[in-house]
Design brief:
With 620 residues, the chain is mostly beta strands. It contains six helices and 40 strands. Strand 26 and strand 27 form a beta hairpin. Helix 4 packs parallel to helix 6.
Length: 620
């Protein structure tokens, strides 16, 4: 198939496949990651993926479709491994296929705070490429008693869509959260017409998400025409929020695509000087119930990153680009306060350093906004955050000088590993303590290449963090790092500027660098500032792709031990056949009897991430 783009770019649908009964539009590419072949068509006329795709096309008929199937033909469920393979393909091919949006009408779980999964690195890489991922919030809303969304949709690097009624209210089954839901869209009695002219009505957040995906594709097309660049996730949501319709429940709004596109047509952005900004939060925490304190870093209300802290004070560094020579509010938001079995979870912030300027939490320009970030319960700044809330640093304009553009940096790790218990060694790549990506290595040495933007003409610490050391039945899992290459500068693990920080990355058990990482720990390369010249360019990517990553045509099944996490597909949403537009007789309903679907617990290594089965919806 050709990878030529439709006028509004190409949209990826990761789902259960397609059906000849429904419009598939301009099908640019297809691959079945479950069956490992290039045919995503299934016999089920009303397979979930076909309905989602058809709805996207009804809202944005000019988009091209890339269909990635991750489920068996019956659409019963998807392994997380297959979903990750599909997203890895998207990251690797986003530029070549002009991909603007990804639709994930998949779900499970009820997260009340921002969550990470094994696909978080792929979602971050796509967000950095300005490929926006749209995820359904779920259908286990129990009338709004529980404020939570599905686990995938709780990731900060995607757009979380809760289903609304289209007229300012929520259906009882809609999962939503005032802090995690990004936008709402009509998910009740959504009308979709097949190729035979029969119109069906569908209910569920699976059918709210496609409306947002279509809006993303159309907004990106309009923005590119005006500016030559794509919208970031934050920019899209700002536009959607400013043009959306306020709902009856405070804090939520419904998408208004027409108003959003009209605003884009009326106003082109004015270029401003940018400050390549590094923000470092030195913090520690007190755990409760075995769960550590967690914070998000925001600037002017927009999320920049997040971190989970332990009892030892550490630096957590984040990089972003902000308007230069302008004051900004740097906000450390503590979001999982709790009291468990007599243990009080708390966050302790020691200092916030912005481009080298340190701010004490008790300084005059720091306040503590308890509870919601709403300016209503504000006290003087303090180090100990005993309650959920936000430490706000009113940083002056001088903290954000216009400087060199970020350096477009390529880092390549050549590594191999020893297997234990059938599991390969895994590492994360960090720069200055901030995660860039990760990879699982085999027994043969290979290059794993990552790209990111870093502050130019400044030294950085490039960190290879081995995180799954184990001995299983006499087998010792280990990681072997041969070289670390930074913008063409190859560094041996035994070089004088390399150290090995055993255990936690805390500077406490540091030895000379070595190739064999026999214990969990971090190989740290102190890279000179000359390795990050501003002339390297200003591309905006943050991917984590192995040079040996199989393409879709050569993808091979993995995790044959059957331990893949299985995520329930949102097929448990009721789909009813409406009367054809030209006839008055009522058609029989579809999906009246939904078989029970399994949703297995996520890998234990991912704390507080527990997907639950979704419940079939009652008839409206």
């Amino acid at each position: 198939m050709s990878n030529s783009s439709a006028s509004a770019g190409n949209v990826v649908v990761i789902d259960s496949g397609l059906s000849s009964a429904w419009n598939t539009g301009r099908l640019v590419y297809q691959y079945d990651f479950y069956g490992n072949d290039n045919d995503v068509m299934v016999a089920n006329a009303n397979t979930h993926g076909a309905l989602v795709t058809a709805e996207i096309l009804e809202n944005a008929p000019d988009v091209g479709i890339i269909a990635l199937k991750v489920m068996p033909d019956d659409g019963s469920g998807a392994s997380e491994a297959n979903i990750e393979k599909a997203l890895q393909w998207v990251v690797a091919n986003a530029d070549a296929y002009n991909i603007t949006a990804v639709n994930l009408s998949l779900g499970g779980g009820a997260q009340t705070t921002a969550a990470t999964t094994s696909i978080s690195d792929e979602l971050a890489a796509l967000a950095a490429k300005r490929v926006l991922t749209v995820a359904a919030a779920g259908n286990s809303g129990d009338g709004g008693v529980t404020q939570g969304v599905s686990s995938y949709s709780a990731d900060v690097n995607q757009i979380c869509v809760s289903a609304s009624t289209g007229d300012g209210a929520f259906p009882s089954w809609a999962q939503r959260s005032p802090t995690l839901t990004d936008v709402c869209a009509d998910g009740t009695d959504v009308r979709i017409t097949n190729l035979s002219g029969v119109t069906y009505t569908a209910n569920g957040s699976s059918f709210a998400a496609p409306a947002v995906t279509a809006a993303v594709a159309k907004a990106q097309q309009a923005w590119v025409e005006q500016t030559g660049t794509r919208l970031t996730q934050t920019e899209f949501l700002d536009l959607a929020r400013s043009t959306g319709k306020a709902m009856g429940t405070a804090g939520y709004f419904e998408l208004d695509t027409d108003a959003l596109l009209a605003k884009i047509a009326q106003s082109a952005p004015v270029p401003t000087a940018q400050s390549a900004t590094t923000i470092t939060v030195n913090a520690s925490g007190a755990a409760a119930g075995g769960v550590n304190a967690h914070f998000k870093l925001l600037v002017d209300g927009k999320t920049v990153g997040q971190a989970t802290v332990d009892s030892a004070a550490k630096d957590y560094s984040f990089t972003t680009s902000l308007t230069a020579d302008q004051a900004h509010k740097v906000q450390v938001q503590y979001d999982n306060d709790g009291f468990v079995n007599g243990q009080d979870r708390n966050l302790f912030v020691n200092k916030v350093t912005i481009n080298g300027t340190a701010h004490s939490p008790t300084a005059a320009n720091v306040t503590y906004d308890k509870g919601a970030l709403d300016g209503k319960d504000v006290v003087k700044g303090q180090s100990s955050m005993w309650w959920g809330g936000t430490l706000v640093v009113d940083a002056p304009a001088k903290d954000f000088p216009a400087g060199a553009a970020p350096a477009n940096t390529t880092i390549t790790i050549n590594a191999s590993g020893a297997v234990a218990g059938g599991v390969n060694a895994h590492f994360n790549l960090l720069v200055d303590g901030k995660a860039i990506g990760g990879a699982t290595v085999g027994t043969a040495a290979k290059d794993f290449t990552f790209a990111t933007n870093l502050t130019a003409d400044q030294a950085h610490k490039v960190q290879v963090q081995y995180d799954n050391d184990a001995v299983v039945n006499g087998q010792d899992r280990s990681l072997f790092v041969n070289t670390v290459t930074i913008n063409g500068h190859a560094v041996a693990p035994t070089a004088s500027n390399v150290t090995y920080d055993k255990g936690a990355l805390d500077g406490k058990d540091v030895v000379k660098g070595q190739a064999g990482l026999w214990w969990n720990g971090t190989l740290v390369v102190d890279a000179d500032k000359s390795w990050f010249p501003s002339a390297a360019g200003t591309g905006a990517v943050a991917s984590a792709l192995s040079a040996s990553q199989p393409t879709a045509q050569h993808a091979a099944p993995q995790h044959a031990d059957g331990q893949d996490t299985v995520w329930q597909h949102l097929v448990a949403q009721r789909l009813e056949a409406a009367a054809p537009l030209h006839a008055a007789d009522h058609a029989a309903s579809l999906y009246d009897a939904v078989p029970p679907l399994d949703a297995y617990a996520h890998a234990a290594s991912l704390a507080e991430h527990h997907p639950d089965p979704l419940h079939p919806l009652d008839a409206a």
